[in-house]
Automatic annotation (TrEMBL):
GO terms for cellular component: P-body; RNA polymerase II, core complex; RPB4-RPB7 complex. Signal peptide: none annotated. GO terms for biological process: nuclear-transcribed mRNA catabolic process, deadenylation-dependent decay; positive regulation of translational initiation; transcription elongation by RNA polymerase II; transcription initiation at RNA polymerase II promoter. Belongs to the eukaryotic RPB4 RNA polymerase subunit family. Residues 148-174 are annotated as: Disordered. Residues 187-298 form the RNA polymerase Rpb4/RPC9 core domain. It is found in: Nucleus. Pfam families: RNA_pol_Rpb4 (PF03874). This is RNA polymerase Rpb4/RPC9 core domain-containing protein. One of its GO terms (molecular function) is translation initiation factor binding. SMART domains: RPOL4c.
Length: 298
């Protein structure tokens, strides 16, 4: 989530460690007075600002060593993409599998799957149908004993051996636990359920015009804006990202605002500190109000 990866904090921890070692060992060649001077001259990190790490740079390098723009999904978008992928996988499995069933049975199965996959379900219905969804799309079969954790490792091994002997080596029940838990999490915490609302939320946040409050905020905290905080030229990178973003929110901020159900501006700025230097409280609360009005009531 919002984790500061600033190198300033790392430098501060390193110097404190050196100071502790020096005080513990009087024979150490490091002068205690010089250490105190370093601590006093050390730039203090302002925890009110979120410093994005390399994983949040706007320009990312993919596995093909090609540059591409950063993509951040909110929970509602991730839920729709995963469920759509499972639907496509079900269609692929149906095409490559040799089926001897009658056409009527296929139509009944497809109708049942459409009901299970539908985004118009209530939250309770979606949670109840997760195992069926996985069964239709991945061949997953839910073992009650294994899911509840009541079976011992020996019993689970015996079940695997029986499946291998009978030729029904269905290991999906073991392999898809992460996917199952992900679907449960998204069903519980995704705020928007249908694709139209998700697209509206994305458009709303993409059109938000930010303001440059950074300079005034730094003056309030008595931070020297003319000095460089670290030797990694992070200021230069920030200027480049500012040119790419213009007056828009960062993709990570857009994803977080759509995922977190915040009511007040203080709450949003606490969870997403980088909003402190981009939006006034009145503007932020107006945006939060519009997001809450679009939220699906279960």
């Amino acid at each position: 989530m919002n984790v500061s990866t600033s190198t300033v904090a790392s430098n501060r921890r390193r110097i404190r460690k050196q100071a502790n070692e020096a005080f513990a060992n009087p024979l150490n060649s490091i002068n205690n007075n010089s250490i105190n001077n370093n601590l006093n001259n050390m730039e203090e990190e302002n925890t009110g600002y979120l410093k994005f790490g390399d994983e949040f740079k706007l320009i990312q390098v993919n596995h093909n060593l090609e540059e591409e723009m950063l993509t951040c999904l909110n929970l509602s978008e991730a839920r729709l993409i995963i469920r759509e992928s499972l639907l496509e996988r079900h269609k692929l499995m149906k095409n490559i599998k040799n089926q001897n069933n009658k056409k009527d049975d296929d139509e009944n199965a497809d109708f049942q799957f459409e009901q299970i996959f539908s985004n118009a379900q209530s939250q309770e219905q979606e949670l109840e149908n997760i195992d069926k969804l996985l069964e239709y799309s991945t061949g997953y079969t839910n073992s009650v004993a294994i899911q509840a954790g009541s079976s011992s490792p020996t019993q689970q091994q015996q079940i695997k051996q029986q499946q291998q002997q009978t030729g029904n080596n269905n290991s999906s029940g073991y392999e898809n636990q992460a996917l199952r838990q992900t679907l449960i999490y998204l069903a519980n915490f995704a705020r928007y359920r249908d694709s139209e609302t998700v697209a509206t939320v994305r458009q709303l946040l993409s059109n938000v015009e930010t303001q440059d409050l950074d300079y005034n905020a730094k003056n309030i905290h008595n931070i020297d804006t003319t000095t460089t905080l670290n030797p990694n030229n992070r200021n230069t990178e920030a200027e480049r990202e500012k040119e790419l973003l213009g007056n828009q929110l960062h993709p990570f901020e857009i994803a977080q605002m759509a995922s977190l159900s915040c009511v007040e501006a203080d709450e949003a700025k606490t969870l997403i500190p980088s909003l402190n230097k981009k939006l006034h409280d009145a503007d932020l609360e107006r945006i939060l109000s519009e997001l809450n009005e679009l939220e699906t009531l279960y």
